[in-house]
Amino acid sequence: xxLRLNLLFYIAAIFQTLCVSALLQSNDIQQYKDEHxxxxxTEELYKKLKYGVEGEYSVLYITIYSTNEDxxxxxxxxxxxxxxxxxxxxxxxxxxxxxxxxxxIVDAYEVPSLIKDMGIENVPHLVVYPPINxxxxxxxxxxxxxxxxxxxxxxxxxxxxxxxxGDFLAQVLNIYIExxxxxxxxxxxxxxxxxxxxxxILKKIIWPIVKKGNVSKMxxxxxxxxxxxxxxxxxxxxxxxxxxxxARNDEGNIMYFSGGTGWQFGIEVFTVSLMYxxxxxxxxxxxxxxxxxxxxxxxxxxxxLLTLLFGYALFYLFSYYIGCFSVKSPGYAYSY
Length: 336
What we know:
Radius of gyration: 31 Å
Shape: elongated
Strand content: 5-15%
Oligomer: single chain
Number of domains: 2
């Protein structure tokens, strides 16, 4: 019985050694990288690489390069996203060269065994494997087909979006990178022409009607306010950084304020802006209340009452604002 146990232990040790020895080191794969630092996996190379590289992140991109009868790529999105990968790869290489990461590209038609092993049905397909720790290898060796990974949800809208993919990869790597987007001339012309047409109509058509007294000036004030509010609140920042307008917590309730002061939800931008607007109106109201124009039209009791109401409302709104800020910055020293 003891001999059988020793034999089983010996066999398990040999198997564990084979599992560990299958892991490659970073230096082992340098010869396979092209001028961009990317490894194009072949069927033969897949047998060597599929067990991973110790201590490195692995970005595996599965695509197709085949063309149709017209000479066009069957998957234009695949080719476009490969350029996006190159862009993010260069950014990480320049800003965080200390990150151990390798990039692999597989043509689905050239490496059918990988497609079969991973059970992939659609391309393009991108996954990121976290670093492998040789000391923590289990009895079953790691491989691309059974290892844990992070999958990137690739859509046609994001195939050329360096910022979107860069954000995903930065979160996986737990790093911060800066992505500089190219100036979009088409979008600039779209906004410029649209804004110009809008303001020309506002000045040449709507304003003359207002001057004649056919439209309430209060309506025009509200219109101007509705234009200024989204323009000056920083809402465009949330759009550019793809921050959600509304988020919900685990209980399904709306989160009006995000944790931390680094960013804001879209609805938070408008909520805070309305607080500032309300406090500004109340403050100006207190000043205007003491003007000769108002003092000549109200008695002393009404003056005192309005001053108390405006002052209390301003104090309450500011106190509420501080309370909201304490949600974003717990332990804020100047709260009360």
